[in-house]
Amino acid sequence: MEIKSTAPTKANLIAAKDQLRLLNTGLDILDKSRKALISAYDSKIKQRDTLNKEVNETIENVSKNFKKARVIMGEERLANVSNIVPVDNSIELTENEFMQTKVYDIDFKPSKLNLSYSFYETNAAFDKAVLSFNELKDKIFKLAELDNTIDNLDRQIQKTSKKVNSLEKVQIPKLEDRIKQISTLIEEKEREEFSKTKMVKDKKAK
């Protein structure tokens, strides 16, 4: 129910109170949404921080394994065999929605050691390097998924917070003041009418 004019009438008072109830309901919904978004955001941040440490450790492991393979096989031989290993495109991107926020899931299944090269061309050090690199890809894809989700959640939290602040600090206080103003003016008007009625009654009684 909308306030059709600024006149201090009971109709406008009822309309203002109805509007206030709607705003408070909206505020409650938005506040719960914001808390859910913040909870999801904090959870993703923890996952990202933990995974980031794992990625750094895996990068060191990959570097160590490839350095070992290069020493054993030689730079040229390692480069030739590396070119034989096919590019792995086994990545699937799924889009979901959480609290009106796009959340992406990257599905990557680490492939087993691909026999695209002959055993006599390589050694155990090269195989270990390939496997460790495959493990790194999995973690980097997951890290990218978390970073994207965190960014989207952060933007949605900011949007929701702006709406909550607008309701809490501007719209609801303004409407509450309007209700008080209308109520005061109605009470004053009723007192005036009561006084006039009493005076008329007193005159008639005399």
Question: Would you mind describing this structure in some detail?
Answer:
The chain is mostly helical and 206 residues long. It has helices at residues 10-73, 75-84, 124-205, and strands at 91-98, 101-108. A two-stranded antiparallel sheet has the order 1-2. The radius of gyration is 34 Å and the shape is rod-shaped. The chain starts with 9 loop residues before the first helix and ends with a helix.
Shape: rod-shaped
Largest sheet: spatial strand order: 1-2
Largest sheet: 2 strands, antiparallel
Helix content: over 70%
The averaged pLDDT comes out at 81
The percentage of residues in β strands lies in: 5-15%
How do the SSEs run, as a string of H and E?
HHEEH
Rg over alpha carbons: 34 Å
Termini, distance in Å?
A: 47 Å
Layout of strands and helices, then pairs:
Elements (H helix, E strand, L loop, with lengths): L9 H64 L1 H10 L6 E8 L2 E8 L15 H82 L1
Features:
206 residues; two-stranded antiparallel ribbon; 8% strand
Summarize the structure.
76% of the residues lie in helices and 8% in strands.
